[in-house]
């Protein structure tokens, strides 16, 4: 008899679904304080962006993308202390206009991230005690046979974070005596265009690769939420529709043959069926970018696509963060504007809860 596997020490990722209306969309006065724009703007270190739309509107979007510079990022080898020195600290760190992440795994290594002026240091027990900095425990709690981890956070944009201040000098001392080992970093500006005027060392600029621009012929499905579900406030029906649509969009992003119009496979191997498949087929376009992408570039992309497409044209925009948890799970946001004349949207948020 095979024993049951031990229970996971981490909670399974949660998926939150939001259905709402967009209202008036203005690329110059877009509100970042309400959904779905707030969710896109709060994304951290984004590693992949997928844009799905009808092939009929691909040329319109491509013309808009010509005005939006492709995202890029850079690689540089430097110590943590060099971030706090001279022009780079003044021009980028103090202004909160840079995203940086060091090499390593947060579960086992000392990893440092700099996100819009906020420095996060993910440390093991030995490094934490040697540094003498004040932090808090991080990751799974309790007696789970795991080595303890700590996270130390500094708001480097604060007026107290200057040379000569006690707290800042303590951080500088720790950087020079405990975290003096050079590390490989990836970094980009807040705009996502990766243009640096001053850097501690020459950087190796890397363009975010457009890994795919595919045209797929799929089953013609209804990418919308039925009005009767909304009017009756049927939460179970909305959950079912949202699950089916998210699954279909995920298979498109993976390039799965299961969503193709003429796909034939034995039901014993796969029982998947496209939701509400209608007669005929539709051609879709999938554009993908991979690398280090900022939330500002993602926001500009969403606004550009939203304002360039005609009313009632559907599209989906998905963004996946680099893993930010000890368990290795990633945060993901998927936005869908249905093929409906009304300004509706569906938003999926996948979060790892520890």
TrEMBL record:
Q: So where does this one cross the membrane? A: none
The UniProt entry's GO biological process terms, in alphabetical order, are: endonucleolytic cleavage in ITS1 to separate SSU-rRNA from 5.8S rRNA and LSU-rRNA from tricistronic rRNA transcript (SSU-rRNA, 5.8S rRNA, LSU-rRNA); tRNA 5'-leader removal
Q: Superkingdom of this entry's organism?
A: Eukaryota
| One Gene Ontology cellular component annotation held by this UniProt entry | ribonuclease MRP complex
In its UniProt record, a GO molecular function of this protein is: ribonuclease MRP activity
Q: Which organism is it from?
A: Sarocladium strictum (Black bundle disease fungus)
Protein name per its UniProtKB record: Uncharacterized protein
